[in-house]
Specification:
The complex is a heterotrimer of chains A (441), B (253) and C (320).
Chain A: H1 2-19, E1 28-34, H2 37-53, E2 56-62, H3 64-76, E3 84-88, H4 92-97, H5 105-111, H6 120-127, E4 139-142, E5 146-151, H7 152-155, H8 158-168, H9 178-188, E6 192-193, E7 196-197, E8 199-202, H10 211-220, H11 243-259, H12 269-277, E9 281-287, H13 291-295, E10 305-309, E11 319-320, E12 324-328, H14 335-346, H15 348-356, H16 364-367, H17 379-386, E13 389-390, H18 398-413, H19 420-437
Parallel strand pairs in A: 1-2, 1-3, 8-9, 11-13
Antiparallel strand pairs in A: 3-12, 4-12, 5-9, 5-10, 6-7
Chain B: H1 16-44, H2 48-51, H3 65-71, E1 72-76, H4 79-83, H5 91-98, E2 101-106, H6 109-140, H7 146-155, H8 161-175, H9 181-205, H10 217-237, H11 242-252
Chain C: H1 7-17, H2 20-27, H3 31-60, H4 80-86, H5 89-120, H6 127-139, H7 142-152, H8 159-168, H9 184-209, H10 213-221, H11 226-254, H12 258-263, H13 275-284, H14 289-319
Helix pairs in contact in C: 3-14, 5-9, 5-11, 6-9, 9-11, 11-14, 13-14
Chain lengths: 441, 253, 320
């Protein structure tokens, strides 16, 4: 009997050994990120690093809808899959407080990497926790914000320009305000362009992860929405549900109702890109991250595409922050190599190449270069957008806060439940409960 | 829905007309049910712009691009950058270059596909192994509380996985089993082993007892091994049909 | 494989190759001990992966534990989790969506599945081949199915709307299967029915085949009409099988997750948010481990209770 058990154990053990991957001879580190254009550009860029250091790079890219689930699960189970992680900006609070990320202050000091060299919005957004304090958990890796693309070739058609002028008494130009944007979307909705029926705008309405929240923010911020009282943290009444915020939410729903292509009930970045690339829409809301790829698109790129920053609302300007920082995972056995990669990546020359290949560098050496605005048709807009960004909560409980907003907003905008005021009131109720549970209220 | 009264179910074969009507109805259903699958296969051969064109295209130029995209990661680059690269090495690279893209490396698809295969085969093999041994025990020996134990094994099948998912997650985290193939194999084995026991018990019950006279253990071992190979192949091929076995067992009981 | 050799010879060789010591020691064991050796591995696995976690879930359900904050203090909160679940309107809405989904999938799958089984039981030429074709959808993984149906349901580029449009004459992009509050639940029911009707059919077919021919012969002798034969022989005798199929589909659909998650993610709004989606969000996105454990237990008790009542009814039908 004992021998039997011993035999079984040996068998099981050998099975386990057979399943663990054999490590290669050369040192290899794994970088995890979302599966999208910039990630593939980073693979191409990192070939330089492998050539220089002899360290092989492995990449683990997860599609956006599962990215947060998959990676937060990985961190929460103290997984060793990723040595480096380009994690979303909202994860920083939880990852810092639960010890998932390595604190980088000492490393930055030792290697002479200065956060002053990076654009302030990205340092606050991607690196700091608690916000506004010099505690750094990531190197700003990929600056990003929400912006808009439009069909420049359609906007240039004389017959459309005439028709638009007649109807709205102004020229058909990229909108300066959100109201103008809605007008343009209305104008194009259902119109025949080049013999094909087209639609106004592709906007974010996704339910499962963060889509509709990331979309609606661009109508809330410029209309005076604030997450909390600037003077009294976590006091939300009158800020989240201010009159301006209610108007902004109503405007977003109006745009969704009047001017999106059929079936735009659960759409995020991928669906937006599809709609724009297949020539269905005049306007598209999306992340700057995709603009280099769109500009190079063989069907709608080049002369046919134009870009603009999220327009102003009644209370000023504002754009949703996207983008990510590069962090070292605390459970990684290869932290030294991971830090060496960050050191290489922070180098201004590498940052310049990063930008040229389609990544959004947050380094001032790139952004403050006098020629920067001319490097791409969306470069100047990017700087403007990054100057007016706001981000969602980055608290450790961000996922609960996000799920609450997703539900409330989707219920109101797509499923036609209740009023805008009720949706925002409900959000305050949900968020208050979360902060109470966390002992912050 | 109702059974048409004109048709017969009797020892006598159903009438030719009934058969023809039945055949027609079944073929109609089979065709309808195949449309979605047919469409997916067709779509896999379209180029990305064709796949999202509206109205959907039925006639199109077949393209290998879908498969290229599945197996590789690409990045879109400027023509100037593309010119600095060596010429395309294969068909996939050619296709991607035409769209101003560069293949940066293989995607994770093959790895993930292999993971699925390993987990499916591993858990099937382990379920059958454990199931055979246990079924053998139940079938050939007097086990106290036999019926209760057998019912317990079956009842684990009714447990919604959600009821145990959280502790399993915590347990796996402590044991370092989360996100490992072994962990997944054990999990799937636990789900499937109950079926295996029930299915195989019925099977072993019906096998005449040969070569087991004086408890010749090695013979039992060898005999079991011999069963195992075809069963293994069989269950790998017909994993889903295991369900069928269990339903029969439950009703016949 | 060595096809030529008889098992006996292999057995002999295996016996000879085994060291005497082990053979002897094993032979010395009582039958009962050997039986336990055989059964124990399976029992241990089931205990480790089913029973032990279940007990742990119960224990967690009385705490405010969060699996993503292991260094926070864990407090015993009594039955708070249970009371807040049972008084949460969102949870009740989720339960309602689940019930709606389970009810309609069972009705449709039983009706279509039984009809198909009955048709296949007419034993026309090639019925084996067509059975195999019909079974294909249920061999696929729900994740794959969810993904490609999402594509088929696209109002602009998907095939589904065009087919409906072709037969009804409505504009293809004038309705949205997964995007409209009214149609979204049905979009899931259609896919589930497409995928799992074959399963019900298979069980019903087994039921029909289990009816001995002599009963029909006797009925023929009594000159019972075919209609009457169907209602007084076919249906009652196949009923235990049909009920079993309903039981299995019911249990499975109560826990349905992957397909709904991929098709609608619970949307639009929370129209199709079935219980397991809510539970997954609470457990693995919000990481409210204690709360979601309590929810899991409530679901478990519901399924287990309903299944038990049902099995009692099933046994009554069988013993008739």
């Amino acid at each position: 009997m004992k021998k039997l058990i011993a035999g079984a154990t040996a068998l099981a053990a050998s099975a386990m050994v057979a399943m663990t991957p054999v490590s290669a001879n050369a040192k290899t580190i794994t970088l995890c990120w979302a599966a999208w254009d910039p990630a593939n550009a980073l693979v191409e860029l990192s070939k330089d690093y492998t050539a220089k250091s002899g360290v092989d790079m492995k990449f683990e890219f997860v599609p956006w809808p599962n990215f947060a689930d998959r990676m937060l699960n990985e961190l929460n189970s103290k997984g060793k899959l990723c040595d480096l992680l380009i994690g979303d900006s909202q994860w920083i609070g939880g990852s810092a407080e639960n010890g998932h990320y390595v604190k980088l202050n000492d490393f930055f000091a030792k290697e002479g990497i200065k956060m002053d060299d990076f654009m302030p919005a990205t340092v606050t957004g991607y690196s700091e926790w608690p916000k506004g304090t010099p505690n750094y958990w990531a190197l700003p890796a990929m600056g990003d914000a929400l912006g808009w693309t439009y069909r420049k070739d359609w906007f240039a058609k004389p017959e459309l320009r005439d028709a638009f002028k007649k109807q709205y008494n102004r020229d058909l130009e990229p909108p300066k305000t959100l109201d103008e944007l809605v007008d343009i979307a209305k104008f194009f909705q259902g119109r025949e362009v080049d013999g094909k029926k087209v639609y106004g705008a592709a906007i974010f309405t996704e339910r499962g992860s963060e889509g509709i929240t990331m979309g609606v923010s661009n109508f809330l911020y410029p209309n005076g929405f604030k997450y909390q009282d600037p003077k009294k943290p976590y006091a939300m009444e009158g800020f989240v549900n201010s009159d301006g915020a209610v108007k902004g939410l109503e405007a977003y729903k109006a745009l969704y109702k009047c001017c999106t292509p059929p079936g735009y009930t659960d759409a995020y970045m991928g669906e937006g890109l599809d709609a724009f690339k297949s020539g269905q829409v005049a306007l598209q809301m999306n992340w700057f991250a995709f603009f280099p790829g769109l500009y190079k698109d063989e069907k709608v790129g080049g002369d046919k595409i134009g870009f603009f920053v999220n327009p102003k609302g009644a209370a000023g300007s504002g754009s949703q922050l996207g983008g990510q920082g590069l962090s070292v995972v605390a459970y990684s056995p290869n932290q030294a190599e991971a830090l060496a990669y960050i050191k290489w990546f922070a180098n201004p020359e590498v940052q310049k190449k990063w930008w040229s290949m389609g990544g959004y560098s947050a380094h001032k050496a790139v952004l403050n270069d006098p020629g920067f605005a001319k490097t791409a048709p969306f470069a100047a807009d990017f700087l403007v957008a990054m100057g007016q960004v706001m981000d969602f909560w980055a608290d450790p409980s961000y996922a609960q806060l996000l799920l609450a907003e997703q539900k409330r907003i989707h219920d109101y905008v797509v499923a036609d439940k209740g009023t805008a005021k009720e949706a925002l009131d409900g959000m305050i109720k949900d968020w208050t409960k979360v902060f109470k549970d966390d002992g912050k209220l | 829905m109702s059974a048409s009264s004109s048709s017969a179910h009797s020892v006598v074969e159903p009438s030719a007309l009934t058969k023809r009507i039945a055949l027609g109805a079944v073929i109609l259903y089979a065709l309808i049910t195949m449309i979605p699958l047919f469409w997916i296969v067709i779509t896999s051969m379209k180029s990305p712009p064709d796949s999202i064109s509206y109205p959907p295209k039925i006639f199109f130029q077949p393209s290998i691009e879908g498969y290229c995209n599945l197996f590789t990661n690409q990045t879109r680059q400027t023509p100037e950058y593309l010119e600095t690269l060596p010429p395309p090495q294969n068909r996939c690279e050619e296709v991607t270059r035409q769209r101003n893209m560069v293949i940066v490396g293989p995607s994770n698809f093959l790895k993930r596909f292999a993971n699925s295969l390993i987990i499916a085969f591993g858990s099937t093999a382990l379920s059958v192994l454990l199931g055979t041994i246990a079924a053998y025990g139940f079938s050939r020996f007097k086990v106290p509380l036999k019926d209760d134990l057998l019912f317990f094994i079956l009842s684990t099948r009714m447990m919604p996985p959600i009821a145990v998912a959280i502790p399993i997650y915590l347990m796996y985290r402590e044991l370092g089993l989360s996100d490992t193939k072994l962990g997944m194999i054990l999990l799937y084995t636990a789900v499937n082993v109950s079926l295996a026991v029930w299915l195989l018990k019925g099977f072993i019950d019906e096998i005449p007892r040969i070569g087991e006279g004086g408890m010749d253990w090695p013979a039992v071992g060898a005999g079991t091994t011999l069963f195992l190979i075809p069963i293994l192949i069989f269950t790998v091929l017909l994993r889903k049909h295991l369900l069928r076995g269990i339903t029969f067992g439950a009703v016949r009981k | 494989m060595t096809g030529q050799k008889t098992p006996d010879k292999l057995v002999e060789r295996a016996a000879q190759a085994t060291p005497q010591a082990i053979a002897k020691r094993v032979r010395g064991l009582s039958d009962r001990a050997i039986a336990w050796i055989f059964i124990t591995p399976t029992m241990l696995l089931l205990l480790a992966i089913n029973i032990f976690p279940l007990i742990w879930t119960i224990q967690l359900s009385f705490t405010n534990f969060r699996a993503n904050r292991t260094n926070a203090a864990v407090k015993n909160v009594g039955i708070d989790n249970y009371t807040s679940i049972l008084s949460d309107p969102d949870i009740w809405a989720a339960m309602q969506s689940t019930a709606h989904f389970v009810f309609w999938t069972i009705v449709l799958q039983t009706l279509i599945g039984f009809t198909l089984a009955w048709l296949l039981d007419r034993k026309f030429r090639g019925h084996g081949f067509w059975t195999t074709i019909i079974l294909i959808p249920m061999m696929l993984s729900p994740a794959v199915v969810g993904n490609f149906w999402r594509f088929l349901y696209q109002p602009q580029i998907g095939l589904f709307n065009y087919i409906i449009a072709f037969f009804t004459g409505v504009e293809p992009s004038s309705f949205e299967m997964i995007g409209s509050v009214q149609l979204a639940p049905w979009s899931i029911i259609i896919v589930d029915t497409w995928m799992w009707t074959p399963y019900v059919m298979l069980i019903c077919l087994a039921g029909l085949r289990s009816i001995p021919d002599y009963i029909y012969e006797a009925a023929e002798v009594d000159r019972a009409s075919h209609w009457r034969q169907f209602w007084s022989i076919t249906i009652p005798m196949a009923l235990p099988f049909i009920m079993l199929a309903v039981l299995f589909r019911g249990i499975e659909n109560f826990k349905m997750f992957d397909m709904v998650n991929l098709l609608t993610s619970g949307g639009p709004g929370s129209t199709t948010e079935v219980a397991s989606i809510t539970l997954k969000r609470e457990a693995f996105e919000k990481w409210r481990t204690g709360f979601s454990s309590a929810f899991a237990i409530i679901l478990f008790v519901t399924v287990f209770g309903l299944a038990n009542i049902y099995v009692k009814a099933l046994n009554q039908v069988k013993s008739r």
